[in-house]
Design goal:
It is a single chain. 14% of the residues lie in helices and 23% in strands. By secondary structure, it is an alpha+beta fold. It is elongated, with a radius of gyration of 17 Å.
């Protein structure tokens, strides 16, 4: 057996992955998305895609942290991730089994931790 026999061929799709952050074994089957690359438990991701979702062309492979939420024109929520290796930003649609409490926590973080004292608002 050669040393490369243990590697997946490009056309084979993994059935699961281990989260780089919380170490949960995550199924690739996700309600609402065809290219899951974030953990439904902690929302962390891995920098695997380069130009388009599912291309798996990135060479970075560092952990990506959920830093914000955005809402598309059709009302769909997406998670904004920042790569801890190269600082690249990417957006990933949420999946039906993502932790709803964490989704809301990420969404309200700017309001819960404003860059100025809230007392300033009372003086306006």
């Amino acid at each position: 057996m050669s040393r490369n026999d243990h590697r997946r061929r490009p056309h084979q799709r993994a059935e699961s992955f281990r989260c780089l952050n919380c170490r949960l074994d995550v199924s690739m089957d996700a309600p609402g998305t065809a290219h899951r690359n974030h953990c439904p438990n902690c929302l962390a991701s891995r920098h695997v895609d380069d130009l388009r979702p599912g291309d798996r062309a990135s060479d970075c492979h560092a952990r990506m942290e959920a830093i914000a939420m955005a809402v598309r024109g059709d009302g769909e929520w997406v998670i904004i991730h920042r790569c801890t290796g190269c600082d690249e930003l990417s957006s990933n649609r949420i999946a039906g089994d993502d932790n709803p409490l964490l989704l809301v926590r990420v969404a309200i973080r700017p309001l819960a931790q404003p860059p100025f004292p809230l007392d300033v608002l009372a003086q306006l």
